[in-house]
Write a structure and sequence with these properties.
3 domains, Helicase, Ruva Protein, domain 3, Arc Repressor Mutant, subunit A, Rossmann fold, globular, five-stranded parallel β-sheet, binds adenine, alpha/beta, two-stranded antiparallel ribbon, single chain, 13% strand, 346 residues
């Protein structure tokens, strides 16, 4: 791993690194990530739009406009922020909305940014409102207003910032306030990856990890990875462990199947939590419709985890339907789980 791929260290290490998920920070997962746009597989329209924006900004010798990425976890929002910094030759500073507890946290970071640096805010929709208000002039005018003293003695001082690029990431664009949303010049949604792209990512990662994998095994892994590169890379490492301990180190389709049984990942890539979620709707609520709060309470899981992590893929593959009166399990979900299709008499 080279320096330009590292998040810049700083006294606010807590604020700056808390956002990253533990598995994101595993050195091997980091090293599997593409470093430049040319290496990026999938999300072609997003990549092309970024290529154009980056090239245009470089030609004009200007910083990029602020960029907002939206989409479920694991699809490349953080990776793209790293890539943008690499492509623009700037440093990257990483934080997350909930880590920015006070305006001062944000001011400390902003005042240290250099011209062309990239400031990545993950889960930007969870930034406290009081902190968010400092972002508006920072994004629009590259300035922050300090208030000294209080009451009749209050004085304001405008501090000029270097022209940085804010890259925001959110799983819930609907929760972003309109003033914040409107200050991004580029907005892109990331969708789940198709099987072909995930096979390509698997083969690239296997190559980097120096492990032999059959094309059929790569397809099997891709089909079971919920359309998500982060999952494909994590499962590849588990399958590699299995192959080394129970086999000769190389990976065939049967190795993937055997290793993923141990991981609790089924043929459609569903995890234990996915299956418990669907079974709750079916067994406790007659297949739905049922509200998310009731499902979360029965499962004893956070609503946010279900909405951000579990539901998007189930909606994507049509196992879950969202109606105005609540969530419903689709017939295809019942068939997959081997339970009678709801509301039908056999
Ligand atoms: N590793 C994780 N995501 C990737 C992507 N989109 N392209 C190439 N390698 C990846």
């Amino acid at each position: 791993m080279t320096d330009d791929f590292l998040t810049r260290s700083s006294p606010e290490q807590g604020i700056l690194s808390r956002s990253q998920q533990a598995e994101d920070r595993e050195p091997e997962i980091l090293s599997l990530r593409p470093r430049m746009l040319g290496e990026y597989i999938g999300q072609r329209e997003v990549v092309e739009a970024l290529q154009i924006a980056i090239e245009a900004a470089k030609k004009r010798k200007e910083p990029l406009e602020h960029i907002l990425f939206h989409g479920p976890p694991g699809l490349g929002k953080t990776t793209l922020a790293h890539i943008i910094a690499n492509e623009m030759g700037g440093n990257l500073t990483v934080t997350s909305g909930p880590a920015l507890e006070k305006g001062g946290d944000l001011l400390g970071i902003l005042t240290r940014l250099e011209e062309g640096d990239v400031f990545f805010v993950d889960e930007i929709h969870r930034t406290p409102r009081t902190v968010e208000e400092f972002l508006y002039p920072a994004m629009e005018d590259f300035a922050v207003d300090f208030i000294f003293d209080k009451g009749v003695h209050a004085r304001s001082h405008r501090y000029r910032l270097k022209r940085f690029v804010l890259v925001g990431a959110t799983t819930r664009v609907g929760l972003l306030s309109a003033p914040l949303r409107d200050r991004f010049g580029i907005f892109r949604s990331l969708d789940f990856y198709g099987e072909k792209d995930l096979v390509e990512i698997t083969l690239r990662s296997a190559d980097l990890l120096e492990v032999n994998i059959d094309p059929a095994a790569a397809s099997e892994l891709a089909r079971r990875s919920r359309g998500t590169p982060r999952i494909v890379n994590r499962l590849l490492k588990r399958v590699r462990d299995y192959a080394q301990v129970r086999g000769d180190g190389s990976i065939q389709a049967a190795t993937v199947q055997a290793a993923l049984i141990l991981e609790g990942v089924d043929e459609r890539g569903l995890t234990d939590l996915d299956r418990r979620y669907l079974k709750t709707i079916i067994d406790f609520y007659g297949g739905g419709p049922v509200g998310i709060e009731a499902i979360a309470a029965t499962l004893q899981e956070e609503t946010d985890t279900l909405v951000d992590v579990v539901e998007p893929y189930l909606l994507k593959i049509g196992f879950l339907v969202r109606t105005s009166s609540g969530r419903k399990a689709a017939d295809s979900a019942c068939r997959h789980l081997g339970v009678p299709v709801q509301g039908k008499i056999f």
